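Researcher: Good morning. I'm working through a list of sequences from a screen, and I'd like to move beyond sequence-only analysis. For each chain I'm collecting a predicted structure so we can compare shapes side by side. This is the next one on the list. No need for commentary yet; just the structure.
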Amino acid sequence: MILASVAELMNSAWPAGVMMLGLGGLFAVILLVASEKLKVEVDAKVEAIQGSLPGVDCGACGFAGCGSYAKAVAADPELIGKCAPGGSATAEKIAEILSLSVGGGAAPLRPVIHCNADIDNRTYYAKYEGIESCTAANALTNVQACKFGCVGYGDCVASCKFDAIHIVNGLATVDYDKCTGCTACSKACPKNIIEMVPFSEPAMTVVACHSQETGRMTRQMCKVGCIGCGLCKKNSDIFAVNNNLASVIYTDYKVDEGVETATTKCPTKVIKRVGKGVIAESKVESPVA
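Model: Good morning. Structure tokens for this chain:
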């Protein structure tokens, strides 16, 4: 009786098993065909370009990440040279992958801090006791006398993936030996005092101030701010003075006797050299007072 029941069960079950096996095989064939029809072809050049990139996904190139930039530059070689962290070496690698040649290219962009005032040279109306963030501190207008100056709480430091910017005695300071020009610090600064400048030379002459106050007001608020006297402009045509503030015209940049004279005679010493090989005046880190 039992043997008969087992036999009947097996006789009734095997068609279902065969059917399931058949359906499984059918679905496998469908998936195989679909994967072949729908698969995305991988461009070997895009893969090679992505492999030549630093892989930091900093966004300095204007794209979401290295993968997006690799696809874009493979389609449009005019975008070669947009990778700031990779610099000219990466540009040359990409050009080689695309069987192109690249010239000298534009000068690499590097950040310049347009402020020269550390804690010892600033005037404060009150002690800030809020969130230790430049963005938060910048929302209050009655703490730091100069509304154009560095706040010193390090939003730029937090944004840098390369440890290339630090707060030294309350002032943002760039380590140009580590800087890749990724632009993260300039985007993070709520004061907009960090400018990306074309470094046609390893070290550049800059005006380390962003104040547009009158010379009299600047002297009251800051010991080392630009007073708009125009002496630099009289000595060299690479300088301009607008809205009480001197600046360097980088399209006309050169270093000559006039630039040296302007730097030496600047009454507040706001004209300075920054870049590789330039030793910072102070290496002592200090919190904002």
